[in-house]
Amino acid sequence: MKNASVGTLFLILVISCQQNQTHTMSSLQTNRKTGSFEVREPSFLSLVDTSYGIEVLAEGFSWSEGPLWVEKGQYLLFSDIPPNKIMKWSEAGGLESYLHPSGYTGTLERGGEPGSNGLLLDQEGRLVLCQHGDRRMARMDAPLDEPSPKFITLADHYEGLKLNSPNDAVFHSSGDLYFTDPPYGLVKNMEDRFKEIPFQGVFRVRKDGTVQLLTDELSRPNGIAFSPDERKLYVANSDVNKIWMEYPVKSDGGIDKGRVFYDASAEKDPGAPDGMKVHRNGTIYATGPGGVWVFSPDAKPLGIIRVGQLCSNAALDAAQKYLYITADPWLVRVRLK
Q1: Do residues 304 and 54 lie in contact, with contact meaning Cβ atoms separated by under 8 Å?
Q2: How much is the CA Rg of the chain, to the nearest whole Å?
Q3: What are 48-53's contacts with CB under 8 Å, separation 24+?
Q4: Which of 103, 149, 198, 337 is the most buried (most CB within 10 A)?
Q5: How high is the pLDDT of residue 21?
């Protein structure tokens, strides 16, 4: 899709929030507001409560990622990748450490980004993790309310070759698991001597454990999500080609040839397409250059939530009242309408 200039197509309205940056890890008693909203279409104001602002819930992380709302416990889990941890935040308890190690369980010291990335729940409510350091999709072998760094491998190889470092994932209603596999968890990324697969793939793990390659056409596949009717699979590409792709999902769970949903390669703001979540009304909240992009189902950019930090991913609570955003050293949220 060819992007026209903002000045030609969009009426831009920037709604600012109060800003005051600090860097101590904490869950704030009186949550401050930060950032601004860029309104490109009036319908943005019917989706996002700009009067609520962008609320900083906790801060001081190395690189926050993979937020997951757990409705049963009324809390949010998210990865802090470099220190190999999962953190927990709730309205009642504030910020707590939840799980360590989360993504690398080896004994040899290593650098890079060893921790877990994307987090999700399977159909039985068990925690599933994209593990950078262990280079696998895994399930925590412990109850959610009694977390323990014990894991069961769901997928770690494709045709005998070790995966790169699973990044983000989503379950289909069939129980099949779809995930992306860029090289970001490898210490030297593309140049890492332990990299075995010669491409960066989007994969499906069938319920019988079979790992199927869906596409190897993207240079850095990252965020992944289904449309509400599961007829479309969205995948972000976080490389020089800053694009979001849309793939038709076939009746057997495979995908057909995709199309570019939106191309943000010309954007000058820092950041690239990363994680995303799809609202039940079809609205797509996708982290990208400048913050969280809000798209209509027909790929029209409605506005941008400009947090003021690089944004990695987002999560919706069960009522879809709040959008939680992991933003580099911060965890923030906005209220939806």
Answers
A1: no
A2: 19
A3: 48/294, 48/303, 48/305, 48/323, 48/334, 48/335, 48/336, 48/337, 49/334, 49/335, 49/336, 49/337, 50/15, 52/334, 52/335, 53/17, 53/18, 53/334
A4: 103
A5: 41
| Cβ within 8 Å of residue 164, ≥6 positions away | 135, 181, 182, 183, 185, 186, 195, 197, 200
Residue type, 324: Y
Closest C-alpha among 241, 195, 249, 192 to residue 217: 241
Which residues partner with 26 through β-bridges? 59
DSSP-derived 3-state class of residue 42: helix
Contacts (Cβ under 8 Å, ≥6 apart) of 275: 65, 66, 118, 168, 222, 223, 236, 286, 287, 312, 313, 314, 326
Q: Which residue has the tokens 């279409």?
A: 41
pLDDT-derived band at 15, boundaries 50, 70, 90: confident
Residue 277, phi then psi, degrees to nearest 5: -135, 145
**How much is the pLDDT for 6?**
40
d(Cα 54, Cα 271) in Å, to the nearest integer?
18
What is the identity of the amino acid at 85? K
What is the average pLDDT value for the chain, to the nearest integer?
93
